[in-house]
Amino acid sequence: MSSTPASFSYLTAYGTSKTGFSPSLPEHNSALDEEVRLYTNNKDREKYENLADVYAIIVTMEHLEKAYTPACAKLIAQYKTAMNLVCDLIPDVEKFMKEYKLKCPAAVNRFKIGVPATIEHSIDPIKSAKYVAETVSHFITLMDALKLSMKAVDEIHPMLSDLMQSLNNMSSLPAEHEAKIRNWLITLNSMRASDEINEEQVRQLLFDLENAHNAFYRSLSDKS
Known about the structure:
Elements: H1 6-13, H2 42-64, H3 69-85, H4 93-99, H5 105-113, H6 117-120, H7 128-147, H8 153-170, H9 175-189, H10 199-223
Helix pairs in contact: 2-3, 2-5, 7-8, 7-10, 8-9, 9-10
Protein name: 121_t:CDS:1
């Protein structure tokens, strides 16, 4: 019977010295430490930086969209600016999100509507009289602007956004009319600031506003 310790036989079998276990390690591949560049020129670098901005804005909005009005308003503005820079690269933001495995439905909805959730759903019954006056004023101002041939997105969108905020403060407008105004916000928000709505859109928007205005008055009468 051999007097050699089992442990010594095990180590010897694996080619180690008596001083300790020294397994042979694979050679280090220095290529794995090299930085992988997505671009080779300044134009491509700017493209990927803009795409990264859009990605970061969407993720941030997903976490903030229900809570912080100033931050959300700022993100919406940043999103519009960023998308203008990459409109050729991202014709459809939902396809972009799918490609980069982004699951941010709340953010997409917020960008489509174009106003913070705290504005869209805000309710304060204590100030209802003030909100009634403001809502009527916003209706009239926007309808008068359209009748005066104001068609540019950057002219109409702020007035429509103010109207939406007032209506949600009141929570008096029937859902179907509120949905139409929200859809107009989404439509304008998908256009460039310098774009203009056409004559057919002007006519339809006026029609929707007048119907919503009348429905708003009826809802107030029903409550009184």
